[in-house]
Amino acid sequence: MGSSDPSWRPEPSSNRSKGFTVVILVALVLLVGATVYLFVELRSTRRGLEEANLKIQTHEEHIAKLEGSVIRTTRQVEESASALRGEVTSTRGQIAQATKQVETQVLSKTQEIAQRLSAEQKAGIAKVGGEVEQLKATTESKFGAVSTEVGSVKSEVSQTKEQLEKTIAELKSVRGDLGVQSGLIATNGSELAALKRLGERNYFEFDVKKTKAPQRIGGSVLLKLKSTDTKRNRYTLEVVADDKVTEKKDRTINEPVQFYVAKARIPYEIVVNQVARDRIVGYLATPKDQGR
């Protein structure tokens, strides 16, 4: 049947051979490519292994050096410790020897001092007895002198007291320019000293000159000298107290010039004892109890 068909023809053998050849070539190409790839990977792997081996070798060398350094350091420490132990032992021996020598010297010195003190004590007992007698005589002499001096001081105090009482008795109390009976008036330094000792008032001495600015007296009072008349012993003065200005015009020496300040039941007093050219000298008297 088939062979009798005039249109059928067998395939030529050359076409089969070409197909097979192509397959073989493709297989060879793939094999060669795989071989090249494996060769490249193998060479890269070998290079990595060589670098790793070099690093390991470098680390091993470094470790060996460190181990050598540690061994040397350990040996040096042991040698230093051994030397220090020897020095400590030697020093302990020296200290023990020195301590023994010091104890011997101290004991010897103590015995020497004790013997010397005993001898000095025996010699000093007699000396002290003589000194006591001499001191007793000196004390009795000084006591007599002190008793005499005390008697003299008592006499002087008594005379001073009598003089003070006499001076105070001679002082006068007059009416001031405000019509208020003043305290005792001092006309000179000794009388003012007597008033200060009496202690009934506070006293502030002043020496005021004629100036543009007022002068502070006694802490809270300001005085400003306006004019003086030396022939008649008169003066004119401005008094500033509690922010108030009061003019005391044409006043005379030893006259109590009075003015009031806040919370004071009795007036303050100014007494001028000396009038000079553009200058007055005197004192300010203030009460000790200011009142409320």
Written account of the structure:
- This protein has helices at residues 13-170, 189-198; strands at residues 172-175, 181-185, 201-209, 215-217, 221-229, 234-241, 244-252, 257-259, 268-276, 279-287.
- With 292 residues, the protein is an alpha+beta fold.
- α1 packs across α2 (189-198).
- The chain starts with 12 loop residues before the first helix and ends in a 5-residue tail after the last strand.
Count of discrete alpha- or pi-helical segments spanning 4 or more residues: 2
Please give the oligomerization state of what you see.
Answer: single chain
Going across the biggest sheet, name each strand in turn. Answer: 3-10-9-8
How far apart are the first and last residues' alpha carbons, in Å? 166 Å
The outline comes out as elongated
- CATH architecture of the domain at 175-287, by name, is Sandwich
Mean pLDDT, as a whole number? 82
Topology order in helix (H) and strand (E) letters: HEEHEEEEEEEE
The fraction of residues in strands falls at: 15-25%
Give the CATH topology of the domain at 175-287.
Answer: Tick-borne Encephalitis virus Glycoprotein, domain 1
Determine Rg (CA atoms, Å).
65 Å
What low-confidence regions span 5 or more consecutive residues with pLDDT below 50? none
For this structure, what is the CATH class of the domain at 175-287? Answer: Mainly Beta
Q: What's the main sheet like?
A: 4 strands, antiparallel
